[in-house]
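Minutes, project check-in
Item: structure for the 108-residue chain
Input as provided by the requester:
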Amino acid sequence: MALLLAVSAAMLLDRSWAACDVGVNNAANGGFLLWLFIPGIWTVLLLVWVAVGALLGNRPLPHAFALAVTLLGVVWCVLSIFWEGAATPPCPSGVPQWWPSFIPAPGF
């Protein structure tokens, strides 16, 4: 689960960076995402997984709900840190054009 969320977050960031022409180039952005971002967020998500499991023990329903909310919250916070909200010519509002308007863009 943690690896799936880490790879999904990296793919979302890569797509938004490519659409808004952010960073040095796609190779540099991809290297960062592949070698630093995915292992880093995967480690954080695994630690959160273990912490939630230790706190809630053997109660399956609260454990599953708390785990889902916590992991999605951590992914959203990590995306907010790395989301490039700067206005660029391809993305004048700082958000890619394919981003759905009913979902707020990551950011603090």
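Outcome recorded: The mean pLDDT is 86.
No further action items on this chain.
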